[in-house]
Amino acid sequence: MSDYHSHDATGLAELVTKGETTAHELLDMALAETRRLNPALNAVTMLAEDAARAAIEKGLPDGPLKGVPFLLKDLKCEARAYPTNNGSKYFEGHTWAYDSTMFTRIAATGVVSFARTTSPELGVGPVTEAQVYGGPTRNPWNLGRTSGGSSGGSGAAVAAGIVPAAHGSDGGGSVRIPAASCGLVGIKPTRARFPSGPASGEGWAGMAIDGFLTRSLRDNCTLMDAVTGPDLGAPYHAPYMAQSFTDARQTPSRKLKIRYVETTLDGRDIHSECLKAVKETAHILRDLGHDVEAYIPPKSLDVPQMMAAWTITVACGTALAIQNAAKARGEEVDQTQLEGVTRGALAYAKTLTGPDYLNAVNQIHAFGRRMAAEFLACDVLLTTTLAEPPCEVGRLKPDNEDFVAYRNGKGGVFDYSPFTAATNASGQPSMSLPLYWSDDHLPIGVHFAMAAGQDAALVSLAAELEVAANWAPMQAKLLAKGGIWPR
Prior knowledge:
- It comes from Lentibacter algarum.
- With 487 residues, the chain is of the alpha+beta class.
- The protein has a single domain, classed as Alpha-Beta Complex (Amidase signature (AS) enzymes), CATH 3.90.1300.10.
- 39% of the residues lie in helices and 13% in strands.
- The protein has 17 helices and 13 strands.
- It has helices at 9-18, 23-41, 49-58, 101-107, 152-160, 176-182, 217-227, 245-249, 272-287, 303-329, 340-350, 354-373, 403-408, 413-416, 421-426, 455-468, 472-480; strands at 44-45, 69-73, 112-117, 138-139, 142-146, 165-170, 185-188, 209-214, 257-260, 291-294, 380-384, 430-437, 443-449.
- Helix 2 (23-41) crosses helix 5 (152-160), helix 10 (303-329) packs across helix 11 and helix 10 crosses helix 12.
- The longest helix is centred in the middle third of the chain and has 27 residues, at 303-329.
- It is globular, with a radius of gyration of 21 Å.
């Protein structure tokens, strides 16, 4: 269909409902776009066209996105019909014996999942450059730049127009970082808002949660509504939402106390383009009638301590996943099939004790309480999503076997992405919105955080900004250029 790119997922579903197109025709279009764009982007993997066609022939659920092509991240979202690599040669072609609650709830919307999207090995890192895919995943706005991580394939595929929406997950920014890098909407809800079972009760000490990459806010709200709520036996629940995400999008935002930060949360400088994005957004919000002031977080917030503790939990989680796989196979781990960073995580984990891990979890929770206290005097904390525009491919390539240095060292992960993990640690809802582009057409995401449970208010603010600073025209420019910005 000639107008495939002029609709978001909701719009495509409406065409299916009206009989103006079919699920098979939309799938044909998505597959054609995959064949055209994926050689340059390297974003889509594990094609499962037979499973997609079979789902259509069986009869799709009468959900809000019936017939819309969709992509699953190549990490978690376990589904019997969709094997995975978990971003790793060591897990290449892994099959599942069950369907996760997240997958079944996504499927109930009526989407047609036909492949997975690239991820760094086991989701570790803000770039997507895993050896299992034979090369890096690239940003459609500039093929020399990263599309982000760990949901980097989803970000690239949605921005380029292969699909209008895709699944992601976020353990420290892994939905919001690619959203910022690719000019998309990425939302991390309050901790435990979405299911994580049946394989686990939580990820990375409660820091990880699933999410979605979309061009429009309404698509993100529809998908979040579809998966909201605890799964059977969940160890804890998110606070009750008095209205759906979709209803919140249609509810005017109340006047909010918004405090913006012109540096990192621990006082370091950010790139000039990112600072411009924050200041311009603050100006827009002030014009909308909100109470907007600059703010300097106290040193007692101690973000570096949280980052160090998070590095411990990620190292232990990574080691556990690999050790469990090796045990199930009855073999020793073949470390040549692992990225250097993953080998470093295994080595680092061996130096840690049980008390070390529990102390790290306690430090993360203590940070969450300090972070929550910041919202006693304001409603919204406004920052840039990343400390700089999307970096060049290869700069954060996961070949450094010093796991701590890769993440916490000079020029490492936390220098590049110093904001997003804070709300994973605290469990607060946060989002990256595509409100700014640099002079050379690189997306710069703007980040918003609110107190735990304030998901609806966050979405109402997003809806207000989608009208006031409409990002759709910039997204459409990329699609009009064929999905890859010419250089």
